[in-house]
Amino acid sequence: MLKAKEEGLIGGIGLSSHSLPMYIEGMNALPIDLILIWCNCLEDMYLPEIHQAIFPFAREHHIGITAMKPLADGFLYRSPRQAMRYAYSNQPDVLVCGMNTEKHVSDAVESICKGPMTDAEREQWLTDAPELGSYICRQCGECSGSLMELFRLEGYADRQMIDYLEHDPADYALRLRLSGWFAQKEYAAAVFREINWSAVKLLEDSEAVSCPYNIDVPRKVRLSLAKLSGENPDII
Ligand code: SF4
Known about the structure:
About 50% of the residues lie in helices and about 5% in strands. The protein is mainly alpha-helical. It has two domains: about 1-130, Alpha-Beta Barrel (TIM Barrel), CATH 3.20.20; about 145-235, no CATH class. A four-stranded parallel beta sheet has the order 1-2-3-4, with helices on one face. The N and C termini lie far apart (about 50 Å). Iron/sulfur cluster binds near residues 137, 151, 213 and 215.
């Protein structure tokens, strides 16, 4: 790639990966011109390093940011306009989104023309988004640091897709498909084993939390522990 750039065969080098550490490593090791990276409200909830580390690093080194997956691989299909404006408000240089129909294109254009979401709109949407519902942790700070980390790891395991709540068959099939998209389950389980949390303490802590998004926190802890330890979640 470097030779091709030197010889003028390519204008620049871009980087994209399903592994977050690869971004900083890659931008450190190579003269990267552009990254292509996730940008949506689902991933923001359990991959804060995208906005806390990778975006600032790219900005500091004058590396362009192309945001992808504003609809979280289709998960946010009920809220495409809000999803687009949310992604736009993360201030990427370019926002790309797969579209299948002319209506998708006109909806996208219309929503982007309204401009990025304000902070108040983002906050409101995190409350209202039907897809996030009463299961996906918004990392609001009401839980202990350990609980929030547990839920982020659950995100690595299956993007918090499998919630054992009632869904229509198509929605369930979509969740099942998206749950293994990044294949990070083993990584999440390894980190979980290393931390060696006390399940009793996590459950005790969870009993005291009143979640502003109506998440049943003790139930979510039991499910997360089962997913990460490999136990059968049917016991929940
Ligand atoms: S209170 Fe709810 S949204 Fe906030 S950190 Fe706990 S589970 Fe997540």
